[in-house]
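Regression test attached.
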Amino acid sequence: MFLRRAAGRPRWLADGCFSWAENESFSVGLFVFRRRRLELRLRGRGEPKEEVGKILKKRDVISAVEALLVHGSVYAPVEKDDHFVFEEIERASDLRLEAAQTVHSAKGAFFPSKDPLVRFDLSSGDWEELPPAAPRFLFGLHPCDTWAMKAFDCWMRDGIPDDRYLRRREHGVIIAVQCLKKCNEDSFCGSMGTYRIFEADVRLTPMNNGYFVEFETEKAREVEEAWREILLEATVEEERELEEMKSGMEDAFSGAEVDLERLPDDMKASFYAPWWRDMGKRCLDCGQCVAVCPTCTCFAMIDECNVSLTECERSRRWDGCMFHSFAEVAGPHNFRSDRCARIRHRMNRKGQWLNRRFGVPFCVGCGRCVTACPVGISPLKVFKRAQGGTADV
Amino acid sequence: MSESVRRAIGESSVYTPRKAKVESIQPMTPSETLLELRPSASPLRGSPGQFVQVTIPGVGECPISLCSDCRETETFQLCVRRVGLVTTAIHRLVPGSIVGIRGPFGTTFPLEEAEGKDVLLVAGGLGMAPLRSFVEYILKNRDRFGEVTLVYGTRSPKDLLFREEVFEWYYEKPISVILTVDLAPAGDWTGEVGPVTIPLRSLEIVPARTLAVMVGPPVMFSYVLDVLREKGLSDDRIYCSLERRMFCGIGKCGQCQIEDLLCCKDGPVFSLSQIADRGEAL
Amino acid sequence: MNIAKKPRVGFFSFASCEGCQLAFLECEEELPVLLEAVEIVRFREASSYEGREIGGEEFDVVFLEGTIAREKDAEEVRLLRKNAKIVVAFGACATTCGVNAIRNTRPLEIVRREVYGEKAGWYDVFPARPVSAVVPVDYTLRGCPVDRTELVKFLLFLLRDLPAPIPKYPVCFECKAAGVVCNYVRGRTCLGPVTTCGCGAICTRFGGRCEGCRGILPDANLEGLRYAYREVGRSEEDLKHDLQLFNSFLSTMREKVL
């Protein structure tokens, strides 16, 4: 019975793009990411345990969030005007777990658009580090967001690690919801192979009447504890229903349009292709794609003083490679003064360089940038074009 | 927090500067000043080619190349040109001022690769600042290197950096020095006139045992490179130090990305074989 | 500028609504500290003094608000440039010529007759132009009106005699960082993609669209914007119309005036 999780995670996950091997101590899991033939060493997971599937009924979602709010802040999709955004929620009823897609990704939880780093006391000449505040529970991440978080982890851990990100990341508990279909016509997670949850502390799989709940890691214990009274044990019918859901899901994401294994090479080969120019003509350099992208990591640092010039706060803010000033140095000299070079830079960051460097896709196909772009630029179109497609980019 | 993360990130944040005191500050030219800093806790221990992030509290932070070989010294020197906000504030520092420093960051000049070889250093303008640390290193270990030649070009004689030292090298000849300026006032200049490529072209080198390092403004690189290649130097024997906008110094802010390389982490010193096929690099 | 001596500051306004000066006066929390740090020599909007003659006084900084619409004003601006160390073009009228440039789109004679009737001959006006078209300016503070936060930040650099950094990216980024859904997604047009940031996307955050009061970015992709307009079913004419409000000077009159 696949629900009895002797191997720590259900077998159905092993059928698709992963296979799951474990060594004796089970402290280090080894994924084989078949589609890219790359092995990723991942953090240790909790002890495997035998347990019965748990169900969170739809009617209990609010009380589940209330239970979490007792333990810490909850960062989740809420409705704002007529769309959804990730925010720290104040009331449990604000949660919109059924949100199709948020305008932004969840990266703001661990990488806020403004992150105060240091406070300088200008009268004493002293300074102090500002602690990185972060939400405790990230509730309602989609599979693409979990993949993006993996990409973010790779980037932030590489070389000298970014301690501010890591502290937040360690602190946060990820509660992800499996998607059963694409969020909208802009998303292309099926093509990027990111439609299954990659890593999460707690994973929810939607069912007709609620969510099937799996606790995956040590950090999930707190959630498990908080939800002890709320969750119900899955019945045999519900388990059957779950299996049906999942098999249906595979079809909903089929028809991948990108060959991920070849993508970095194809992007490299088309680096000087003439069609970048067409896109450069349209691109407005507005940087919306950068702001909504779950894997865009660039930032700038800005120092701001109070009006009496006694204090100064240094913060890091999101920045973006789409801006003219981004690659400017004193001189002045600009290494990417051409708009076409900037959009090409961004697309190659998503499709070539970082994929190669870290072995995970740096475009997770969420399609947020496609939705946000006023001139309809889409990474999917670019990837397809780079792989020999003829459609306009 | 898990033990592995705690170990990885250490006590204080990589973004928190540590303190350093201004030992001395002396103008070198109307727009460049030489700053000597003494870190308050432990010495910097930076190697030639690396850079530090200098914070002026209340103003901001900017990356500056080390211009002294400070692997074993208590203090280190920076040559700062006044171009923007932070560098303007740096020029106003006085001895005793407290600044913040982070680093050292980045790769070093090919200190070991150059051993036993002839070294050709090409500096343009402010490029002399980082190269000066390399020259210091060479002078300290003079017997480990063969012929060392410095070709240094500036706009005019008054823009020469490290004037006294450079003239000392010029006359004492621990290394051979060729100076050239774009514009020379009539009379008092006996060096070359014109771009660095002119004296470089007439220089005789043995490509098989020569290693070249060039640092200068972006426009200089391609011209110098042409000459070096003409002389038969292969790309893996040519090094250059690149300049990019950067904030973090540790490969996170993405500002200095050159295609798939990060200037702050994979550079700023690159061998040409690393960057030759990256159109954006030079 | 010497920190020990308070910098001498003057505010002057030309053809404008004087709302930007008002924006400065609205910095109520910061004003006590700022006024401590500077000596305000001239500020008609905030003083009971009613004269507006401009003499030979020396200034460290002058803030020039408004459009230059007649020769007399141009002369005053030139005089101020001579007497001031730093000239700041203050607000949309002074930086992009703002709404005043709409006047330039029609023959001056007709406009004069329309406004002044039979007294049209009394007023000697020429095509409206921003301050920067008359004298070189050291800084531009954009917006209609200027953004208070930006203004205070700017003053803090000025007080320390440091070169103030002026951001050069579009409003869109501030808008997105604030979590606002794009107007284009809603099927509306917006000038955010081509407009200089610094306002914190105040219009779009409160449900409006960006009207471009902070001026078009120097390297803005207007061709791309045309495409975006077409995508939401708007025409070239609509774009021209939108750009006219604050950016007429850029599109129509620049060559004629300069």
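Expected vs. actual: identical. The two ends of chain C are 32 Å apart (CA to CA).
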